[in-house]
Amino acid sequence: MTDSAAHPHDPADLERQKAQEARLAIPWQAPKGWRYWSAVNNTEVGQWYTTVAFVFFLFAGVLALLIRTQLAVPENDFLSAGTYNQIFTLHGSVMMFLFGVPIFEAFSILILPQLLGARDLPFPRLSAYGFWCFVIGGVFVCGSIFFGVAPEGGWFMYPPLTTAYQEGIGADIWLLGLSFIEIASIAAAVELIVGVLKTRPPGMRINLIPLYAWYILVVAGMILFAFPPLIAGDLLFELERAFDWPFFDHTRGGDPLLWQHLFWIFGHPEVYIIFLPAVALVAMIVPTAAQRPIVGYGWIVLAAVGTGFISFGLWVHHMFTTGMPGISLAFFSAASEAVAIPTGVQIFCFLATALAGRFTKSTPMLFVSGALAIFVLGGLTGVMVAVAPFDFQAHDTYFIVAHLHYVLIGGMLFPVTAGIYYFFPLRNGKQLSDKLGKIGFWLMFIGFNVAFLPMHFTGLLGMPRRVYTYPADMGFDVLNMVSTVGAFVFAAGVLVVLFDVVRPKGKQADSPRNPWRAGTLEWLAQMPPRNWGVRSIPIIKSRYPLWDQPNLMADVDAGRYYLADAEEGKRETLITSTIDSRPIQCLRVPGPTWITLWAAVFTGGAFILPTYKLYTAALVSAAIAGVVILAWLWTGTAQIPEKPEKDVGLGLKLPLYASGPKSVGWWAMFITMIGDMSAFASLVFGYFFFWTVHEDFPPDPLPGPGLTWPLLAAGLAIGSWALTLLARHLNRRDAAVGFYLSLGLAPVLTVGAAAALFAGPHLSGLDPTTHVYPATVWVLVLWTLIHFGIALIMQLYCIARRAAGRMTAVHDIDMQNVGLFWHFMLITVLVTVAVIAGFPRVA
Amino acid sequence: MKPTVLAPRSGLLLATAILLAGCDGPQSALAPAGDGAERIANLFWWMLGGSAVIWTLVLGLAAYVTRFSRGKHSLVASRWLILGGGVVFPTVVLSALLIYGLMLIPALRTPEDVGMRVEVSGEQWWWRVHYPSPDGGGPIELANEVRLPLGERVAFDLLSPDVIHSFWVPSLAGKVDMIPGRTTELIVQPTQLGTFRGACAEYCGTAHALMNFQVVVMEPAAFERWLAHQAEPAQPPRSEIAQRGLESFLANGCGACHAIRGTEADGRLGPDLTHVGSRLGLGADVLPNTTEAFVRWIGHTDRIKPDVRMPAYGMLPDDELAALATYLSELE
Question: What is the signed CA dihedral for B235, B239, B243, B248, rounded to 10 degrees?
């Protein structure tokens, strides 16, 4: 503590605190009027993001009611077959892509800085960009139903139905619209990982971080490995639809099962990406309800990590009926059963916490109890369908519909609603109504079970999924009518909760601070909360600092910790070391801007225009997006501060600029490139998948791309990589001439490498539309060429930065990050060359 | 004594009877009539019982720890709870279940002792069926109906020329997908006589819901007679009106898509109609097999089955439609 702690009620000290608080408020205030929408602070963006995700949820919920209305009676003609198919496709896609995953990211953007006692996330503009991408893409995908052109291939979009047997632009809307959103999801994942690793408060070692943050780390990590395979799949898919590259067309060597693999390598982890954050909410609520620390913190972390790992090893259970060998069935059955164990561990940790604590009832806990009852049943039916023989019957029937809704609604919607009731005071200082919460809960709980419990039997009586109608004499009639009634009761419950959230609360008294007597940092918030997050960033010594660190709230409020002031009028937050959370930097985070909105608009254009075959316009839009993003980077990132370091309080001086592994940008680049690598690995997987299914892949004699050109490309790429690293070194030594020489030559080699890589398949006449072999070679080349383009821009950008005086020997974030990118670039090139030129010679 | 013991027991029997009656249905996996379906239904009942017990235990435990325990228990007890409930118990139960479940796979999938191979191709939105010829000649093409001899192990070779379908007769066995470019296999061994319904289980486009078929399990001798009959060419028209129907069939180009063995009609795009009158349903079991249904189907295919490839022939005069329908329904 500083010496002011000795005189807490000294009037001069109080005066000083007031002045600090006023200064701190200025940079953090949200813009006013229409400029409000240029805000980037996590409190604003997080709230918009959460709200929009819920709007999409309500939209998809209405679609669900239409589905249930159509199925209420046999041979109904309320909806036509085509409309019904669009509706169920959109219901699943919207719930998964526009609600299930984004709601976690949205809510985490809102809450993570609070949980960590930080002022904001490290890249506020990235969150804002992701949010605007999400809105644009989501509205585009949802809007299609009003024009009758929505996708109608199911949320899984199996080819060849969707590649060759459906006319119209529905499939393109799905592919391009959702790819766009997936990129936003990955951006948010990068943001959240860096947030957890680098913006924790001093003292919050890795074993003290709140469980919610652990889950964020696990789930965001899963997004990095799960979404890229789908993006790679989307790329193959769109290349087939738009340019007739036959990846999934069996008449030209393609295979529809490749899509199923890529889709479910994404699709199964996605279930856990949706489920784990909800467990994370429960992990925050249960200790509060039990008024004691969680029992089995280590168990939970281990179980969450374990669930994440195992979830990548069981995608094939979605393909048990594709006629695979018995050994595969056995392996993936076992893996699917195994995932129940870490899930069970998490549930038993909560039960154990309740057992060891003194439990108090609350509306959030009511929803958690409902979640438990529903989810455990969903988990048990999950164990059933994981046994391959039973899945032979249950697969693609209403049994699965019942199972997945028990898992997702019990494992996600009920915990999220619990989270809404629990965390709502952090929004504007008001509590939700216990009475409405109880009514909403019982309507939702009863309605849900009435709707979905009978579906288990509907499925076993033989009703397949995705049927728009059924005949009268099959024994489905009563069950379906009951399900429909239940669905409407459930919807009524959701409406009650919705009303509770949106009803005006102006006259209602503010909630007391820390209304649930919780132990974690987010409850430091004043009521109503302030934009800056915490008044000062505390030193943490416990997992439940509000319980274990006496006087913490008063000391934080009095500004007795770090960054209590904003002398320079800038938004600042602390960056700490990854493992032991020592303060290492005072990070200046950017404020409001429109540039992220424009970047999102033009990025959206690049994805949306190809739907209408407007390829030129799309390229122009992509180019503008590129320029806008460059302008954003140029003006908003890696800015050289006016002084090298500042006093952050408690006598600690921290640098205002850090580069290399100490900087958040370096981490973001590293994490992004992990995601990039997993997309690339998925394309390589495609190549080897065809090798395993075809006798003659690669074909003999080999039509291309030869050895010479690819090897030349690899050589030139190595040269460009070496020169980039040399330039990084010379920049550090402030050897300007050498820097310009090496980084001036490097782009020439980059262009040469790209040209040589293109020349291989081009000069050997490989036509990607003739057979899947040239198509797979070309797609690897295309991927690498796009990366060469980005790598080239990066090299030129660094030259320009130094020339403009925005990069110096000390202030070299740009050069460090580009060097890091080039490591991954080189891996991409070498693997591509090894696969397309080397592998055919070994095979 | 006796009545008091009997009463709950008969109550239980009654409840079981009601439950089992509720499981009945032409497409029910819980009313098995085939070896595979029986094994899977047994597996299901065991899992259902186990799940009910586990669900009750977990929820009972949750009620106990949140309502009644009130801090009576030590941390040590809580830790044992995690280890016992979260790790040991599920590991034991899941291992046992896995062993039971996986041991079923060989019986469900081994193609040993297969007496007959039938090829079925799923097409948007109907089923093309090939039986081996009883006299060793080329395969016999049928459509939208499968008949099987009681007790014989039959292997289905499953194909698709267009999109992915899935062949599923819940009462007989689990489903297997039909994937373009691959041939998949399903083994079926019927254990009961009767008529069962099959459906496409993989979403295959607009009329996915209307892609069904009937499976008839027959005494082996009756099956042999049926197959021999199906191998024969179509019977010639027996009445003047049927003769007009045949002429109309040929004149309107129906033979470009449909084959009727014994006539000039040899189209291969749509279902073979040689013995269409002998089938239990029309349009992949969308309509009953009656003359009136034939009229409706031919006149309004697009309204009965959205996006179907066959054009509607509603422009034909009513008497011509009636003649066509008569001819076709007499093709037994």
Answer: -110
